[in-house]
Amino acid sequence: MSAATFPSMELDPPDSIGLQFAFLALWLVDAVAATLFFVLPYATELNPVTVFFYELFGLPGVAAAAVCYAAVVMAVGHFLSHPLDVAFVGLIVVAYAAFALNNVPLILFEETLPELLHL
């Protein structure tokens, strides 16, 4: 009698360690910012999925939503071939950088970056 084996599900991240680190760092900044949006009275989370998870589970729901976003990015990157996986994760890093450029000043100074720069 032989035992059936499941195919291994190994992660296949882009080759660039810098890109992986940038994704992780910016994802973490965005996850912390999203959590603070539910704690601080002057900031509001706009992402409806994060708000839904927060309404279901409270602050742990915000962390769960962030983990789901990271899992989706890793899954999509896993199934894309090189160099599309690098381009996709690079695009996500740019998106998270844009979020951080808006969210961090909002949390620290109670103003968005355009408001701080008087744009």
Structural features, described:
The chain is mainly α. The protein has one domain (17-116). It is 69% helix and 0% strand. The protein is built from 5 helices and no strands. It has helices at 17-37, 48-57, 59-79, 84-109, 113-116. The protein starts with 16 loop residues before the first helix and ends with a helix. 18% of the residues are buried. The mean pLDDT is 88.
Q: How many strand units?
A: 0
Q: Could you say which structural class the secondary elements and strand pairing correspond to?
A: mainly alpha
**How many distinct helices?**
5
Estimate percent helicity: 55-70%
End-to-end distance, in Å?
71 Å
What do the pLDDT scores average to? 88
Major sheet summary line? none
Estimated share of beta-strand residues: under 5%
- What's the SSE pattern? HHHHH
- The number of distinct structural domains comes to 1
Protein name: DUF5658 domain-containing protein
Organism: Haloterrigena alkaliphila
Keywords: Membrane, Transmembrane, Transmembrane helix
Write the layout of secondary structure elements.
Layout lengths: L16 H21 L10 H10 L1 H21 L4 H26 L3 H4 L3
Helix pairs in contact: 1-3, 1-4, 2-3, 3-4
Can I get a quick summary?
The chain has five helices and no strands.
Question: What structural keywords apply?
Answer:
single chain, 119 residues, mainly alpha, 0% strand, flat, membrane, transmembrane helix, DUF5658 domain-containing protein, transmembrane
